[in-house]
Amino acid sequence: MSATAMRRAVRESVSGLPREFWWLWTSTLVNRLGGFVATFMALYLTLERGYSATFAGLVAALHGLGSVVSSLGAGVMTDRLGRRPTMLIAQLSTAVSVAVLGFMTHPAAIAAVAFVVGMASNASRPAVQAMMADIVRPEDRVRAFALNYWAINLGFAFSSMGAGFIAEYSYRAGFVGEAVMTLICAVLVFVKLPESRPERAKDANGAVEPEIGLGTVLRDGRFMSVVGLSFLIALIFQQGYVALPVAMGADGFSSSDFGVAIAVNGILIVALQIPVTRYIEHRDPQRLLIISSLLAGYGFGLTAFAGSIGVYALTVCVWTLAEIVNSPTQMGLVVRLSPTHGRGRYQGMYTMSWSVAALAAPLIAGQVIDRYGAEWLWGGCAVVGSAAALGYWLLMRALPADDAAADAVVEVLKPDAGAAGAVDAPVASAAQAPGTANAPAAPGAEPAGAPAAP
Predict the structure, then answer these.
(1) What is the pLDDT of residues 28-43, one digit of tens each?
(2) C-beta separation of 369 from 410 below 8 A
(3) For residue 145, how far is the Cα from the chain centroid?
(4) Predicted TM-score of the model (pTM)
(5) Which residues touch 150 (CB under 8 Å, ≥6 apart)?
C-alpha cells in the first residue's frame, strides 16, 4: 500500500466521529496506559509473594467475582443515574482500591481488596459502551468500537512492557501508577464528557415509555444466546492473563519475559486493528464470529507446544487475530440487539459474561495446571473454541431473514449542566421490543445501519 493510500485509509477510519467520542477514546487510552493489576497479579502472587498457582487463581477469581457483582448493578446505574456519573463513581473507586491493594500483605486482606478492585474496575464498562452507542451513528459503530479497542491495546502495548520492567524493580510502584492513571481518567470524564443518556420517548397519549427491567433482558432468548457464547470466548481469552503467566513462570521465564510475549498482543492490535476493521465491516458478523472462535481456541491450543519466548509470541499472534475480529463484531451485534433505553442493562448483562469468565477461568486454570499440567488446559481451550464456533453457526441458522430491519430515529440527548459542551444528537436505532429491534441479519440479509454482507 502506498503512503497516499495509507493516509487515505487512516483518514477514512477516523473521520465522521463526534468530538465526545474522541474524549471517551482518550480516557480509555489513559486508563489502559496504567494497566498493571489484571496483567501482573498472578506473577505478583506466585513470584513476589511465593503463593501457589491455586491461591493466585483464587485471588483472580475473587477479582472476577467482584466484576460479576458489579456488572448488572452498573448496568442499572447507567440507565438510571446516567453514563457520566456511573463512570466517575467507578473510576474514583478503582483508583483508591488499586492503591490500597499494593500495600496489603496478609493473604486474606489481598483477597478481600482484590474483590473490591474487581467491583470498581468493571463498573465503568456498561456506561462506556452505552455512551459510545449513544453518541455514534449506527453505521459507524463497528468502526468506533474497533477504534476504542485499538486505544485499549495501544495503551496495553506500552504499559505491559513498561510494567514488566517496573515489576522487576517494585510491584508496589505498579499498583500506585495504575491508581494515578485511573484518577487522571476520572478527571477527563468529569471535565470533557457531558451526559449522553437519551430522553425517554412518549407515546401518542403523552405517556413516557416504560423502563426496561433485567427480567426483560433475561427473557430475550436471542440476546442471552449471544451472552452465553460470549462467555465461552471470554473463558478462552482470560487464559492469556491468568494461565499464560503462570505457565511461563513454571517454565523458568521471568516477569519481563512474559511482558515481552504478551506485548505482542497489544502491538499487533495497534498495527492491524484499523485495516482489519475496514475489511470486516463489510462481512457477515456471524461468519466472523465463527472464524474468530476457532482462531481463539486453536491459538491457545498451540501454546502446549511452546518452549521459548519466540514460540509463545507466535501463539499470541494467532489468538490476537481472533481478538481483532471478535471484539468490534461482537460489540456491534450486542448494540443492535439492545433497545435504546435499555442499553445500560443489556451492556451490563453482556459485560457479566466476561466477568463470570474472569471468575471461572482462574479457578479452572489453577486446578488444571496444578493437577494435570498446562498442556491439558491448552487442549481444553481448543475444545471450547470449537464449541463456541458451533454455537454461532447454529445461532446464524436460526435467525429469520425478516428480522433484520429496524427504523432509525433521532435521539434527543440531554446534556449535563455540569459538563463542558453538549453532545450532538446522533442518529441511533429506535427503541423496540427486545429481540425484535436492532437484530442481527440472517445470512444474505442486510441489517439497517450496517454494511451489506458479502
Answers:
(1) 888 777 777 767 777 7
(2) no
(3) 10
(4) 0.70
(5) 269, 270, 273, 274
